[in-house]
Amino acid sequence: MNKVDTETIQADGATMDQETPPGDTKPDNRPDFLRADKISVTRATWFYVIGVVGGLIVGGIGLFNARGTETNTVPPPDLALVNNVPILRSDFQIQLENETGIPFDQASRDEKLKVLDEMLREELLVQRGLELNFAETDQSSRNALVSAVEQQAIAEVTTSQPTEAQLRKQFNDHRARYATEGTMTVHNLLVMERIGESEQDTLARAQQAAAALKNGTPRLDVEEKYGLTQAKYYDEDFYFAAKIHLGDKIYNDVVKLDAGQVSDPILIKDGYHVVAMISNTRPVPLSFEKSRSQVLTDYKNNEQQRLMNNTVSFLRNRSKILIAKDYRGDYNPDDFLKAYAP
Does 242 fall in a domain? Predict the structure, then answer.
């Protein structure tokens, strides 16, 4: 058996022993960088550098073409960019059709360019308004923002229709609302305190006047004898108008009277009132079918208010609100939430 020769080969600073097979007369003299069967630190370093540079290039392309970054190209969904704020092609088409009243495909190039210019001008002015902080300082801008948020919050209700079961529940839960409008005609007589007269004497005079009216004494005679004056007279009033004219206290006391009846004296800040009911046509309940349109309106109003209350509650919960000391103890948002409840 031939003796095996052993060579010491220097490769990239590393010493390796390699056995040269017997009879091998043509050794591979290529640099280790080019040999796949050799470990090369230089080759590994170059591949690493190429990978890093390639990754940076790909990342840079994605970064500088993302929304919110400076770019000289307009993405396909957009028609234009104003300080990187997009004007959508879909909005452009809708506005053009609304303004011209013709389909987008039938509009001329000049009409399209005119609408484009309008949208660019609008966006420039909107951005300027934001720079000037109009949302905080201009009341009309604030009102517009509030209205926009409200419309967004109640969009679910305005774009959908309730079921028949939901409408019937609304009707059954609030039957008193669905009736004909009641009407009444009254004489509202005021008994004012006379100079030097005690409150007890004034009350006694009012009671005597009420008793005389109840016994059928003509109203004008009662007014003259007991010194009554008539508050402003209104012809037949719907209930809601009568409530405004009489005030809550007097209205609530006399609405139950029948025609021809007279109230007992009612004390409010300007004195005692005696009310004679001339006519009282009470509301008549309506069927679901006859009141369906009103039921639908009430249901949507209630749902809109419910959604707005939920939205405000959500915003309160995620916000930090500080109230000045002189109001902090008295203010309770839940009190006003009840007032807004449907």
Answer: yes
